[in-house]
């Protein structure tokens, strides 16, 4: 045997653990990228039902996406553990070569990656402080499974899809529903219809328009434009002589209220349709005395207008917003409807044009409202009582409308307060009436085509890529730090440790360990190195049993082989033969 050759290491080549460290880390990076790609493909997509049978749809369900995401996270965690665990072994073998450990310290060192109780070993902390951090980081990798899947959540989002639909409306020009007629060719208009009286009265007294019915489901919206009557109101009186309240009780002047119909612009249809417009005087009273600052004068002109409306239906809630009102001509200037194409009057004709229907319906609407508004409120005083007096008593219902400020009034005490913005309040009265008519409830046959926006609150996947890469970045970074330390230790060891049973078999198979009393592991110190009694073979032994210098100085082992009856060979028996090249 050539005793000048040093004994070979009991461990394998360093290439296998090196490739294991690097490949496992790269696999973790690839799996993390795959996880990101999978979640990115789901982002903003509708969550499919868990009852889906198609594999593609199942992956787009919440349970399917959660299962796949958790699997990715588990595999990434496993790959990081393999990479860092292999690096940990290289550091562990480096430490046991550098210093002696108690048996209990060795127990804690090798079990620390999978036994948390190892961190309670004093010998472990005292002898292997540096490797404690690497082992602790290995325990953190399973947290990836906890946090990474949570970066994909489910949020309810409103999806807007346009589509053609038919919506209710009311065309004032194609119906005679809002007025009654008489058999007279020269003057067919008779009075407002019962339908007009009903819709106007209910709207005024309710203080809001009738609720529209959705034609497109529970979550939709659409825009509608329709010609309808409106008011344009402004402070001041156009014809002050029409409000002749000076004949009233002079002790209570001006009166609380006085209103009349007028034509701001002379009507072009004086035979049938006159007094379209409205003016009024409003005065606040306190303790039966008029406001000394005077009242508010108001003139409202009736107009033919185009309403631009936005209907929105969300669940059981319906709303109508007036985007704009385009004023055309005053209602008093609407063209005579019973005429030919040249505008000439056709005597004895019962055929009405669209203009006639519109004019008569407008007039019927205004004159369904005016009985609630036109008249006066005065203060009546007898010998022992004072009260407000309404004329005409049967029709005037101002205190039931939004013109009246009920919260600031106490009629029994002589306190009467009107709205702070009377022009706008008057305009809104007419707008609410128009909105009630346009709901389509008066004539279900009238519909128009428009574009509806169908909104549905569907569950969508929401992916936070920054959070996912924060979780994986911390894991990959911690593993890379462990790997760098492990690779340095690997090349310093000049061998590669795998942590397999053969490593420990070769490292502990020597006679120096036969007499150890393992009942007190915290008192027995072992070190990994070249054992004197084993001809310089590397193994665990007491520090005093190891060569202090170069293991190449180890004595020949052939004598002991002969004494033991072992066949003589050209080199000593080493445990690596058990797994390197046979025995």
From TrEMBL:
Keyword Membrane found: yes
Record region (Disordered): 542-583
UniProt keyword terms in alphabetical order: Membrane, Transmembrane, Transmembrane helix
Transmembrane segment boundaries: 65-89, 131-152, 469-491
Protein name as annotated: Uncharacterized protein
Native source organism of the sequence: Mycena venus
């Amino acid at each position: 045997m050539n005793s000048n050759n040093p004994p070979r290491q009991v461990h394998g080549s360093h290439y296998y653990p090196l490739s294991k460290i690097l490949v496992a880390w790269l696999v973790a990076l690839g799996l993390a990228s795959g996880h990101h790609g999978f979640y990115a493909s789901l982002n903003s997509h509708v969550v499919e039902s868990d009852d889906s049978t198609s594999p593609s749809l199942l992956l787009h369900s919440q349970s399917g996406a959660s299962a796949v995401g958790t699997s990715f996270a588990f595999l990434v965690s496993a790959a990081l553990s393999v990479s860092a665990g292999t690096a940990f072994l290289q550091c562990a073998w480096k430490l046991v070569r550098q210093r002696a450990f108690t048996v209990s310290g060795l127990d804690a060192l090798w079990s620390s990656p999978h036994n948390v109780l190892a961190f309670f070993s004093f010998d472990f902390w005292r002898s292997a402080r540096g490797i404690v951090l690497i082992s602790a980081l290995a325990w953190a990798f399973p947290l990836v499974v906890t946090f990474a899947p949570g970066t994909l959540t489910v949020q309810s989002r409103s999806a807007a899809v346009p589509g053609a639909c038919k919506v209710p409306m009311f065309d004032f020009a194609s119906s005679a529903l809002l007025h009654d007629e008489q058999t007279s060719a020269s003057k067919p208009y008779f009075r407002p219809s019962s339908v007009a009286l009903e819709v106007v009265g209910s709207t005024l007294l309710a203080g809001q328009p009738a609720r529209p019915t959705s034609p497109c489901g529970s979550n939709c919206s659409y825009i509608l434009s329709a010609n309808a009557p409106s008011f344009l109101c402004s402070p001041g009186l156009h014809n002050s002589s029409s409000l002749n309240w000076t004949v009233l009780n002079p002790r209570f002047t001006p009166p609380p209220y006085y209103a009349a119909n007028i034509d701001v612009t002379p009507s072009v249809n004086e035979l049938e349709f006159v007094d379209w417009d409205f003016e009024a005087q409003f005065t606040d009273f306190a303790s039966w005395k008029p406001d000394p600052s005077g009242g508010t004068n108001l003139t409202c002109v009736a107009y033919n207008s185009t309403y631009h409306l936005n209907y929105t239906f969300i669940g059981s809630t319906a709303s109508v917003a007036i985007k704009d009102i385009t004023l055309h001509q005053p209602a008093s200037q609407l063209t005579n409807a019973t005429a030919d194409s040249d505008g000439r009057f056709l005597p004895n004709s019962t055929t009405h044009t669209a203009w006639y229907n519109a004019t008569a319906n407008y007039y019927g609407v205004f004159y369904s409202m005016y009985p609630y508004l036109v008249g006066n409120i005065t203060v009546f005083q007898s010998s022992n009582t004072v009260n407000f007096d309404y004329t005409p008593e049967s029709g005037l219902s101002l205190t039931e409308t939004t013109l009246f400020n009920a919260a600031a009034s106490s009629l029994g005490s002589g306190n009467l307060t009107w709205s702070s913005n009377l022009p706008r309040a008057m305009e809104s009265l007419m707008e609410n009436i128009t909105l009630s008519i346009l709901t389509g409830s008066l004539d279900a046959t009238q519909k128009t085509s428009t574009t509806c926006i169908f909104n549905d609150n569907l569950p969508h996947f929401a992916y936070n890529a920054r959070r996912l890469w924060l979780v994986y970045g911390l894991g990959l970074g911690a593993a890379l730090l462990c790997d760098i330390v492990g690779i340095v230790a690997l090349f310093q060891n000049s061998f590669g440790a795998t942590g397999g049973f053969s490593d420990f078999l070769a490292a502990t198979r020597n006679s120096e360990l036969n007499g150890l009393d393992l009942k007190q592991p915290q008192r027995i110190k072992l070190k990994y190195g070249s054992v004197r009694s084993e001809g310089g073979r590397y193994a665990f032994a007491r520090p005093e049993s190891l060569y202090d210098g170069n293991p190449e100085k180890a004595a020949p082992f052939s004598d002991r082989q002969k004494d033991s009856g072992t066949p003589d060979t050209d080199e000593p028996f080493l445990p690596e033969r058990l797994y390197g090249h046979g025995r």
